[in-house]
Fold this protein.
Amino acid sequence: MGDALFPTFTVFAHRGASGHEPENTLRSFRRALELGAEWIELDVRVVEGVPLVFHDRTLNRCAGKSGVFERQRLDFLRSLDVGQGEKIPTLAEVVELARDRARLQVELKGPNCAPAAAQLLGRAISAGASPDSFLVSSFDSEQTALFRRLLPQVPVGCLAYGYPRRPVELASSLGAVSFHLNLDAVTPARVAELQAVGLKVFSYTVNTESDLKFATEAGVDGVFTDFPDRMAPFQGRSTRPAPTLSATGSRRQ
Ligand code: G3P
Ligand code: MG
């Protein structure tokens, strides 16, 4: 199922190179590209019909303002500084930036994102992008299912926090190629259960050597990381990495 799309160990730059730059900004995505990321993960919320790239429900943490993201005007959101003078990017800007350079793991974060995201990615595909250059997920399975109905050629992943009661049935109902588990939910038995039906298992968020060791010993097929440079030595390996990561990203012998 996921083998053709993810033949080797996969590293997703989580919110870009967000360990180095303000998360979910063009600066963070450019840095991820410079660091050789093959996949970039980002979070999408829709305001006035425009898919924007932003993680939180509220503005406090990233923009230093109060208020719920989706209750703001688009022009106000686009005027905000989300770190080092960076603006909140549109999904269209990130698609353009990453075109022919990296693939995008688009997480539908806000309510009712699926139609606008499907329309935008559908346009990118009509303009020549490969459907496989995107992987869409959401904690809200209904959004994933709706997205899949609207744009079935784009692969979807099943995103969970904790381990759902019927994970294989859930993934199957979504037509998912992958299952994305928070690190605390990862166990060897769960990874094996999902891989047995052809799913790839990716874990978030893996930033340290000990967490990489834990995840790879459990058998995961890839990780989301805020530090793609640290994981770069393992990206694209045909087998799962031996977890010998140093704090600076160089490998120990
Ligand atoms: O998609 C993986 C990961 O990004 C999910 O959690 O909260 O970092 O968006 P979060
Ligand atoms: Mg995310």
Confidence is low (pLDDT under 50) at residues 246-253. The two ends are 35 Å apart (CA to CA).
